[in-house]
From TrEMBL:
Biological source species: Ignicoccus pacificus DSM 13166
Keyword Transmembrane helix: yes
TM spans (from-to): 12-31, 38-55, 90-119, 126-146, 158-175, 205-225, 231-249, 270-292
Protein name in the entry: Digeranylgeranylglyceryl phosphate synthase
Keywords assigned by UniProt, alphabetized: Cell membrane, Lipid biosynthesis, Lipid metabolism, Magnesium, Membrane, Phospholipid biosynthesis, Phospholipid metabolism, Transferase, Transmembrane, Transmembrane helix
GO MF term set: geranylgeranylglycerol-phosphate geranylgeranyltransferase activity; magnesium ion binding
Cofactor(s) of this protein: Mg(2+)
Family statement drawn from the similarity comment of this UniProt entry: Belongs to the UbiA prenyltransferase family. DGGGP synthase subfamily.
Catalytic reaction equation(s): sn-3-O-(geranylgeranyl)glycerol 1-phosphate + (2E,6E,10E)-geranylgeranyl diphosphate = 2,3-bis-O-(geranylgeranyl)-sn-glycerol 1-phosphate + diphosphate
Length: 297
């Protein structure tokens, strides 16, 4: 049981739930989501995410010995070799399993596997590039869930319609990563990590995050017109976006934007979770209503 607990900690089990929710939300953006492609997308996305977390801790062994000695690898509960033996098969098997749905779903899974590997190996230390990869991987869960459904039913035009929702998630995710860079400004500057906060300064970085958050709100509004999502989704996502904008603006006005950045970072994390729940809740209610009307007819 102790070994299992260590493995669950290694792969960030709580974050895997968020990955699954993202895929479920993406699947539900399709008018009539089907169970088989949804399950395959969820399973393979969770496999890639778990592999990514494991390989991340492998490459961060020396850093974690100092900053997070309680983590499974530096604490000795999981060996570096065990982390590799877990991550490599998951990276390899996920695209193969995704082939059950189709070649494009498998290809997208393979791209994400490669991206997660190189992010952990080197990209995460390259500042903005690392931020872009994280934002892409966050939005990719939505796109992946929808892609699996679309390839299964061969309704490719749906992908274009759901892109505003994907972009909403991408821009908010990128904004949050930039805010995290502001919060980590002093450590990143000392270690020559070229985040926007280090290159442009904390204030300009927060201003950029503010603009990106506003763009994500605009994408949410556009999504209302291009998808089956209703006023419930619109109200929840726009409210969460406005809360994020207000929190960033307050951090910008503070005397110490670096220490103040932790508040908008937390608010934006909640906003992203609210966005996923808004999609799932909105579509669940809509599908339940459609089923009720069908029974009446």
């Amino acid at each position: 049981m102790e070994k299992l607990k260590a493995y669950l900690e290694l792969v960030r089990a709580h974050n895997l739930l968020a990955t699954a929710l993202g895929v479920i939300a993406g699947s539900m953006l399709v008018v009539k989501p089907l169970l088989v492609p949804a399950l395959i997308a969820i399973i393979t996305a969770v496999m890639i995410a778990a592999a990514g977390y494991a390989i991340n801790d492998y490459f961060d062994i020396e850093i974690d010995k100092i900053n997070k000695p309680e983590r499974p690898i530096p604490s000795g509960r999981i060996s570096p070799r065990e982390a590799l033996l877990l991550s490599y098969p998951l990276f390899f098997l996920a695209p193969l399993i995704a082939l059950i749905v189709g070649i494009f779903t498998a290809l997208f899974a393979a791209i994400n596997s490669v991206l997660m590997y190189f992010y952990s190996r080197s990209l995460k230390r390259m500042g903005l590039i690392g931020n872009l990869v994280v934002a892409f991987s966050t939005a990719a869960t939505l796109f992946y869930g929808a892609l699996a459904q679309v390839e299964w039913i061969k309704e490719w035009k749906v992908l274009a319609l759901i892109m505003p929702v994907v972009l909403m998630t991408f821009f908010l995710g990128l904004a949050r990563e930039i805010v995290k860079g502001v919060e980590d400004y002093y450590g990143d500057k000392a270690n020559n990590v070229r985040t926007l906060a280090v290159v442009w300064g904390p204030h300009k970085a927060l201003k950029t995050a503010l603009i990106l958050t506003i763009v994500s709100i605009i994408m949410a509004i556009i999504s209302f017109f291009t998808t089956p999502l209703s006023y419930l989704f619109l109200a929840l996502t726009v409210s969460a976006g406005i809360a994020s904008v207000i929190s960033i603006a307050k951090a910008m006005k503070g005397k110490d934007p670096v220490s103040a950045a932790k508040v908008p970072r937390r608010v934006m994390k909640i906003a992203m979770f609210v966005g996923l729940i808004a999609i799932i809740l909105d579509r669940s209610l809509s599908l339940a209503l459609l089923g009720y009307k069908a029974e009446e007819a």
